[in-house]
């Protein structure tokens, strides 16, 4: 079991901020990352939809014998955490509680802001998390358009700055000195957010804190890989594998050397089964020798009951 990989998932590239922190803090651990790009973004969707998608992805990861699940998505964490911890025998780590703990330690005034997707804000997950800190005044703002900028790789533009400025106006008006980036996509826009928020506001990203939780649980449960282990990182996408590989390598780095297709969601699109970095550089898929616009297919979804031995919920 210690040699098994850590399963991480998000709706897209945002969860790579969590993957990066885990790789940095736990260099001997292997990870299996699934990006549900065929059904992204999760933020505008209902809690019920996000819950169904998240359970399907986690079933897929558990079927592939991961030793831990990391929900690297705030929307999914809000929708499915309790179900996941009851459903699976492996430890489940999420991103909301670690960010909350860090914000409580960081704030000097007791005024904390959080920007997140609509699904996360509507779920009141952060407000619930802060009930243990009654002296903190929380201001929550839905900032759905920021995900769109990340997913198309746009991290600097006058338009982006204006969008961030509009979203942060209620945070600034409330006098918040600490701001939680309540979506794992948002740390990829730290430059723009910090520029607008100003030096007096501490930004809290859940990635580093989540990785610390992963470290602690692996150590305490005897699940950590040995110091001589050679990690193997695997990346899968339910949508366009080549597009994810291109964006993913930009945000994570050379650890992404290929992206497989995760057969989930019951969707189909034109393309082939995998994308490699060699294909990205040449404009063709090295795995299949096809132009990048044709890369990435999804196979049929699998029955959740067959994967987990439990009734689908």
Provide an overview of this structure:
Strand 1, helix 1 (16-25) and strand 2 form a beta-alpha-beta unit. The protein has helices at 16-25, 47-63, 74-87, 96-106, 118-123, 125-129, 145-151, 158-173, 190-197, 206-220, 241-251, 277-282, 304-308; strands at residues 6-10, 31-35, 68-71, 92-93, 111-116, 137-142, 178-182, 202-205, 234-237, 258-261, 274-276. The radius of gyration is 19 Å and the shape is globular. Helix content is 42%, strand content 15%. The protein has a seven-stranded mixed beta sheet, sandwiched between helices. The protein is of the alpha/beta class and 313 residues long. The protein contains 13 helices and eleven strands.
Topology overview:
Elements: E1 6-10, H1 16-25, E2 31-35, H2 47-63, E3 68-71, H3 74-87, E4 92-93, H4 96-106, E5 111-116, H5 118-123, H6 125-129, E6 137-142, H7 145-151, H8 158-173, E7 178-182, H9 190-197, E8 202-205, H10 206-220, E9 234-237, H11 241-251, E10 258-261, E11 274-276, H12 277-282, H13 304-308
Parallel strand pairs: 1-2, 1-3, 2-9, 3-4, 5-6, 5-7, 7-8, 9-10
Antiparallel strand pairs: 10-11
Helix pairs in contact: 1-10, 2-3, 4-10, 8-9
């Amino acid at each position: 079991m210690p040699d098994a990989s850590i399963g991480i998932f998000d709706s897209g590239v945002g969860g790579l901020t969590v993957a990066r922190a885990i790789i940095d803090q736990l260099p001997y651990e292997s990870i299996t990352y699934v990006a549900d790009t065929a059904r992204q973004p999760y933020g505008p969707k209902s809690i019920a939809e996000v819950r169904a998608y998240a359970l399907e992805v986690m079933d897929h990861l558990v079927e592939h014998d991961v030793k831990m699940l990391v929900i690297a998505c705030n929307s999914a964490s809000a929708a499915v955490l309790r179900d996941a911890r009851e459903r699976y025998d492996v430890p489940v780590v999420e991103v909301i509680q670690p960010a909350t703990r860090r914000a409580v330690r960081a704030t000097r005034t007791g005024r904390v802001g959080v920007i997140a997707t609509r699904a996360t804000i509507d779920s009141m997950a952060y407000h619930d998390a802060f009930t243990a800190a009654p002296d903190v005044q929380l201001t929550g703002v839905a900032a759905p358009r920021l995900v769109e900028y990340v997913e198309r790789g746009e991290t600097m533009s006058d338009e982006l700055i204006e969008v961030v400025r509009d979203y942060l106006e209620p945070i600034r008006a409330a006098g918040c000195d600490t701001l939680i980036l309540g979506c794992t996509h948002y740390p990829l826009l730290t430059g723009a957010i910090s520029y607008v928020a100003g030096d007096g506001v501490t930004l809290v990203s859940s990635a580093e804190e989540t990785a610390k939780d992963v470290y602690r649980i692996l150590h305490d449960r005897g699940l950590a890989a040995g110091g001589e282990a050679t990690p193997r990182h695997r990346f899968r996408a339910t949508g366009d594998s080549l597009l994810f590989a291109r964006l993913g390598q930009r945000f994570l780095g050379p650890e992404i050397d290929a992206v497989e297709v995760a057969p989930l969601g019951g969707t189909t699109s034109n393309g082939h089964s995998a994308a490699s970095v060699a294909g990205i550089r040449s404009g063709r898929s090295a795995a299949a020798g096809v132009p990048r616009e044709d890369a990435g297919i999804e196979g049929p979804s699998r029955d959740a009951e067959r994967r987990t031995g439990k009734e689908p919920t």
